[in-house]
C-alpha cells in the first residue's frame, strides 16, 4: 500500500497524457471545465476499448486516481482506463452542483441540471468520441460522494461502480441505497470509506449505511467498506483509491502464485475450464474482452503437468489458437501433450510447426528446434 501511494505522483507523464478543455453544456447553460486522461496505449490500439471513470471534484481527485490507475496498468494489475474529471473548483460550485430537495431527498435546482448534464450530455459525448467499454465508474468526496448515490435511485443505474469517499449523505440515503441495491437486476460494485479522524457529523450516517448494506443479500452487489485508523477526512482519500480500484478490478488481475496454489493446482480436473471461466467473468462483469495472458496459459499448463492431466493440453491448445493465432503457443501445447503421452513422432511434428510461427513469452524458435531434436531422438529407427 505504501509503495503504491509513494508512486502515485512519481511521473504520470511517463504513462499517459491528460488534457483540460471546456465543455459547453446546454443542460447547465454554461461551459464546464473537464480534464481527460487517455491510457498510454490508446493511440497504438485502435480496436481496444477502455473502462471509463467519471470523477466529481476532478480538480483535486484527478491526479491521485489517474496515477493509481496508470501504475496498476503498468504492472497489468488494473486495466487501462479513461479518466474524466469534472472540475468544480469555483466558489460554491460543488455545493450547487450537488443540490437536492431536503424533503424529497432527490436532486433539485442546479443539482437536477448537473444530474442531467452527466447522464444526458457528458457520457454520450465521451462514448461517441472515445472507445469506451461498457463499464462506467463514478467517484466523489464528501458532498459529491453523497450526490453520486442519486444515480443508484434510477431503475437501471447508468454506472456500474461507485466510489463514495466520506460521503455527506442526503436524507434517508442510508436506507434508500440498500433498498435499491437489494433489487438490483445488473451487477453493481460499491465502495465507501471513512476514518476515525473524519468529520464527526458524517460518520454516523456512513456507519449506518454500512450496517444496512451488509444486510443486502443480492449476489449482484459487490460491496466493500473501509474504516481507516489514523487517517483524516483528506488522507482517507489516498488510502481508499487503491482499495476501491482493486476491489472493482479483482477479476482482471493475472493468475497469482496464491491463486495458482490455493485454487488451481488443487483441482482434480477442469484446469482449462477454470481459465476460460476467469476470462468469461471478466467480459461479463467488466465488459472487457482481452486475449488470455501468456503467463495465465503457463499457469494452467503447470497445473496440468503437476496433476498429469495431459489430455487437457489439447483443450489448452484450442484456446491458445483462438487467442494468439499467429504465435507458436498452440502448436507447442499440442507438442507437449504428445510428448507427455509418449507419441514422440507427433510431438516432433508439432514442435517443428511451432518453430515456424511467432515467438511468444518465453517460447522461442531455438527452444522449439531443441524440442524437435529431442523428440526425433526418441522415435524408433526402422
From TrEMBL:
**Domain of life, per lineage:** Bacteria
Does this entry carry the keyword GTP-binding? no
Instruction: List keywords of the entry alphabetically.
Output: TPR repeat
Residue ranges of TPR repeats:
328-361
Which InterPro entries does the UniProt record give?
AB_hydrolase_fold (IPR029058), Esterase-like (IPR000801), Mycobacterial_A85_antigen (IPR050583), TPR-like_helical_dom_sf (IPR011990), TPR_rpt (IPR019734)
Looking at the keywords, is Glycoprotein present? no
Q: Which Pfam families does the entry mention? A: Esterase
Spell out the protein name for this chain: Esterase
Amino acid at each position: 500500500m505504501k509503495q503504491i501511494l509513494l508512486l502515485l505522483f512519481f511521473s504520470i507523464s511517463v504513462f499517459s497524457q491528460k488534457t483540460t478543455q471546456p465543455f459547453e453544456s446546454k443542460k447547465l447553460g454554461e461551459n464546464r471545465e473537464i480534464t481527460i486522461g487517455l491510457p498510454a496505449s490508446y493511440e497504438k490500439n485502435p480496436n481496444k476499448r477502455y473502462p471509463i471513470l467519471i470523477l466529481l471534484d476532478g480538480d483535486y481527485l484527478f491526479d491521485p486516481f489517474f496515477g493509481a490507475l496508470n501504475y496498476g496498468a503498468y504492472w497489468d494489475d488494473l486495466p487501462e482506463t479513461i479518466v474524466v474529471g469534472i472540475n468544480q473548483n469555483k466558489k460554491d460550485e460543488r455545493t450547487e452542483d450537488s443540490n437536492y430537495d431536503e424533503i424529497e431527498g432527490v436532486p433539485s435546482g442546479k443539482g437536477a441540471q448537473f444530474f442531467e448534464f452527466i447522464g444526458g450530455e457528458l457520457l454520450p459525448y465521451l462514448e461517441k468520441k472515445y472507445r469506451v467499454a461498457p463499464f462506467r465508474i463514478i467517484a466523489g468526496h464528501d458532498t459529491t460522494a453523497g450526490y453520486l448515490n442519486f444515480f443508484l435511485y434510477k431503475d437501471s443505474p447508468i454506472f456500474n461502480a461507485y466510489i463514495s469517499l466520506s460521503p455527506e449523505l442526503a436524507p434517508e440515503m442510508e436506507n434508500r441505497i440498500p433498498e435499491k441495491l437489494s433489487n438490483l437486476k445488473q451487477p453493481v460494485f460499491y465502495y465507501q470509506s471513512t476514518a476515525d479522524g473524519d468529520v464527526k457529523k458524517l460518520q454516523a450516517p456512513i456507519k449506518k449505511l454500512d450496517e444496512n448494506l451488509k444486510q443486502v443479500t443480492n449476489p449482484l452487489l459487490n460491496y466493500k467498506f473501509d474504516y481507516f485508523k489514523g487517517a483524516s477526512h483528506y488522507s482517507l482519500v489516498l488510502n481508499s483509491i487503491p482499495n476501491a480500484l482493486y476491489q472493482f478490478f479483482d477479476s482482471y488481475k493475472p493468475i497469482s502464485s496464491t491463486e495458482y496454489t490455493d485454487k488451481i493446482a488443487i483441482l482434480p480436473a477442469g484446469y482449462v475450464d477454470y481459465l476460460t471461466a476467469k476470462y468469461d467473468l471478466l467480459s461479463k462483469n467488466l465488459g472487457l474482452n482481452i486475449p488470455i495472458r501468456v503467463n495465465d496459459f503457463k499457469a494452467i499448463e503447470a497445473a496440468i503437468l503437476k496433476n498429469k492431466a495431459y489430455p487437457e493440453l489439447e483443450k489448452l491448445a484450442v484456446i491458445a489458437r483462438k487467442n494468439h493465432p499467429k504465435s507458436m503457443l498452440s502448436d507447442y501445447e499440442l507438442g507437449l501433450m504428445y510428448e507427455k503421452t509418449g507419441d514422440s513422432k507427433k510431438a516432433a511434428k508439432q514442435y517443428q510447426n511451432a518453430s515456424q510461427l511467432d515467438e511468444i513469452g518465453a517460447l522461442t524458435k531455438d527452444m522449439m528446434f531443441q524440442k524437435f531434436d529431442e523428440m526425433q531422438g526418441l522415435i524408433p529407427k526402422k
